[in-house]
Write a structure and sequence with these properties.
The structure holds 2 protein chains of 2 kinds.
Chain A (H helix, E strand, L loop, with lengths): L1 H17 L3 E2 L3 E10 L14 E14 L4 E12 L6 E14 L2 E8 L32 E10 L2 E8 L21 E6 L7 E10 L2 E11 L4 E7 L2 E9 L1 E13 L2 E11 L5 E13 L7 E11 L12 E10 L7 E9 L5 E11 L3 E11 L15 E9 L1
Parallel strand pairs in A: 9-13
Antiparallel strand pairs in A: 1-3, 2-3, 2-22, 3-4, 4-5, 5-6, 6-7, 7-8, 8-10, 10-11, 11-14, 12-13, 14-15, 15-16, 16-17, 17-18, 18-19, 19-20, 20-21, 21-22
Chain B lengths: L13 H8 L7 H16 L4 E11 L5 E11 L7 E8 L7 E7 L2 E9 L4 E5 L15 H4 L7 E11 L4 E10 L6 E9 L4 E9 L4 E8 L2 E3 L3 E3 L2 E6 L5 E11 L13 H4 L2
Antiparallel strand pairs in B: 1-2, 1-15, 2-3, 3-4, 4-5, 5-6, 7-8, 8-9, 9-10, 10-11, 11-14, 12-13, 14-15
The chains are: A mainly beta, B mainly beta.
Chain lengths: 397, 269
């Protein structure tokens, strides 16, 4: 599907290049990652190479077709010799935008963001996730659809029609950081993959309060994995995307240097109906030393009532503590320490990242991921041999 | 603050001339300071909106330099503070980063950012606005729009400024805002254009912190004076941030609904 979208949308973009559109300068980056896995893999199919190099790039480009219509494209491509997909890519956004009175219309491949918390976002349910690019769910796949947004003072209303549901991309076969011990054999959508989903969202701001309510009807973006067993051995998993309804709410309150946040969902219609809730805070401390540096502290808690039949989630009963130090200097040095503790299975995930700018257009970054005590955690037990160090370099164009 | 946003020049009105030449006793330095600030403010009212491209060069001690480029969109609101949206295009890793600030009279600003890497808008707790704007000598407090009612004023002195030199008015702007990074901003205003030529910033301990100088003013839309270049110098270490302003456009048709959190992703392109 991903490469099919690339092959469909890129020619359209080329066509747009060729017509009388007023284009903005494209932007993007090319980068190299080197990931070092010091431990042997858990599963025999996984790549046993210690070093996993990859080359990647992104492109963002916009063009005005006329005064009222703009086309935006965001594409991503990655080549990795040690991964299940040697070549992967996605059209994350390819959308025609127009504005009629105070109604913004978008049509094409959309990126929607409904989240406010830092570590995990249950309410954010429009786009499918690419868990290979980021196992914590921060990378989204482009979602075909149409949206209309209207504004009335501090009230924003959005309606979406989403005519196609994409499969979640997860680590399989040679990939490290696998959540499943065997590959996906078959994907099933309860009403067929081309059955449309619908969503409504209302945002309202009242001074220091932000409130949003959302309603989604359609296929769940989180599949249920069902083992496929032949001759008494596990050969893979069937994934099922159930038809569900999800009601979501977010609340945000600014108080002093802190933003207090909450996300709540109620999902019904699948094998399990459940409620999920999460609360958190984000506090900024400026000028820690004599310069312009700052520290941001995140504290979040996640809890939901889903049972074993419900889709697997890495943040079911967890707490998250984040610490970000930013020099806010010319080179924008950043240190990010993220700690997640599972209250049910007592597993830990430690994620340390550091980065800085080189010159005007390069970023070099380091990451260290350490899963600890994950053997009993169904969402993370596949990571127990997957601690890694990652060195990245990117040139921005 | 980049007070260019709020001050413009018009021909001297009789009242302004009288104000400028009036003798001032020690008892009414506050009244005169406020009168000057009000004149500056009222002369620039009515710009509706304007857009300008800023090219910033940061020069640090030891020869380190960095360049930044951004487009700044400012919307004048009648019944509330102004809105300002900044879209970065340089450095390239920050291209598409957007910040939106809604300044309120006598209340903390509302502030949002859009992060293109995650395609996400975030509301910030912005009580403390002393953080650096893009690694420069400018703080976010300096970039936010100016509200007359957010300061108390004191007349300091008349002194020569500008080229050719004329008698300018120097006033102290004293932030009412508890969490301002400054004790006061001492501003020298050229009455020919009712715009600042220089602002000296004093920290909370009353020490001189940095100086902002304004150059190459030009008249736009028949009423609004704007500088072509401004330079902020850190008096402690000599670091300097210069912004060249290009391509001023007034009354572009910006609407309040254009400058909202929900539309930041649109601006990011």
């Amino acid at each position: 599907m991903r490469l099919r979208m690339v092959s469909t949308v890129l020619p359209c973009a080329v066509l747009l290049f060729s017509i009388n559109a007023v284009a903005k300068a494209p932007r993007g980056y090319v980068g190299i990652d080197a990931v070092l896995f010091p431990d042997a893999p858990l599963y025999p199919e996984q790549s046993s190479a210690t070093l996993h190099p990859s080359v990647q790039g992104s492109l963002d480009w916009s063009a005005y077709l006329n005064q009222d219509i703009r086309f935006d494209l965001s594409a991503y491509l990655r080549a990795a010799t040690q991964d299940h997909d040697d070549l992967s890519g996605d059209i994350r956004e390819a959308v025609f935008r127009s504005r009629i009175d105070d109604i913004d219309l978008k049509m094409g491949i959309l990126q929607e963001n409904w989240s406010i918390l830092e570590a995990w976002n249950q309410v954010d349910f429009v786009n499918q996730r690419d868990m290979v690019e980021d196992f914590q769910g921060k990378v989204k796949l482009g979602q075909p659809g149409v949206s209309a947004t209207t504004y009335y003072h501090d009230l924003v209303l959005t309606a979406l029609i989403l005519p196609y549901t994409r499969e979640r991309r997860i680590a399989e076969q040679e990939d490290r950081l696998r959540t499943l011990p065997a590959p996906i054999v078959h994907s099933t959508f309860e009403n067929g993959q081309t059955d449309s989903s619908y969503a409504l969202r209302m945002q309202y701001r009242l001074g220091d309060f932000d409130l949003s309510l959302s309603q989604f009807w359609g296929h769940s973006r989180e599949p249920i994995y069902m083992p496929v067993i032949e001759s008494q051995s596990l050969i893979g998993f069937d994934e099922l995307y159930e038809d569900v309804a999800q009601t979501g709410a977010t609340m945000q309150y600014v108080f002093g240097d802190t933003v207090f946040k909450a996300e709540v969902i109620n999902q019904t219609g699948g094998a399990d109906s459940f409620v999920g809730s999460s609360i958190g805070s984000e506090t900024i401390f400026n000028q820690i030393s004599d310069g312009f540096d700052s520290v941001t502290v995140y504290l979040e808690g996640y809890y939901d009532t889903r049972n074993e039949r419900a889709p697997l989630t890495p943040f079911q009963k967890d707490v998250f503590l984040g610490f970000r130090y930013n020099t806010n200097s010319v080179n924008n040095e950043l240190l990010d320490i993220r700690y997640t503790h599972d209250l049910e299975y007592h597993s830990d995930l430690i994620d340390v990242r550091a980065s800085r700018r080189l010159g005007d257009s390069q970023i070099v970054s380091l990451q260290f991921l350490l899963p600890q005590s994950v053997v009993d955690d169904p969402a993370l037990q596949g990571f127990r041999q997957d601690k890694y160090f990652k060195l990245s370099w990117a040139l921005y164009l | 603050m980049l007070k260019i946003a709020y001050y413009s020049a018009v021909l001297f009105s009789l009242a302004a001339a009288q104000m400028a030449s009036a003798n001032t006793g020690t008892d009414d330095i506050g009244a005169r300071g406020r009168e000057i600030a009000q004149t500056v403010d009222s002369n620039d009212a009515g710009f509706d909106d304007y857009v300008v491209v800023g090219k910033m060069t940061v020069r640090r001690r030891g020869g380190i330099t960095a360049t930044r480029q951004f487009e700044m969109n400012t919307l004048e609101l009648r019944d509330d503070g102004d809105k300002r949206l900044v879209v970065f295009s340089q450095p390239r890793d920050l291209a598409g980063f957007v910040s939106l600030t809604h300044t309120h009279p006598s209340a903390p600003d509302d502030q949002w950012i859009f992060l293109p890497a995650t395609n996400r808008s975030k509301r910030l707790a912005s009580r403390d606005k002393t953080g650096s704007f893009a690694g420069s000598e400018f703080a976010y407090e300096d970039i936010a729009t100016w509200e007359l009612s957010n300061y108390n004023y004191e007349f300091v002195r008349d002194e020569p400024c500008g080229e050719p030199a004329t008698t300018c008015h120097t006033i102290a702007n004293i932030p009412k805002y508890t969490y301002s990074g400054y004790e006061k901003l001492v501003e020298t205003i050229d009455p020919r254009i009712w715009q600042p030529r220089r602002i000296v910033y004093f920290d909370r301990q009353g020490r001189e912190l940095k100086r902002l100088e304004f150059f190459d003013y030009q008249l736009y839309a028949g009423k609004h004076w704007r500088p072509g270049r401004i330079v902020m110098t850190n008096v402690n270490d000599g670091s300097e941030s210069e912004i060249i302003w290009e391509n001023y456009r007034f009354k572009t048709g910006l609407r309040e609904s254009d400058l909202t959190e929900a539309r930041l992703e649109y601006w990011s392109r």
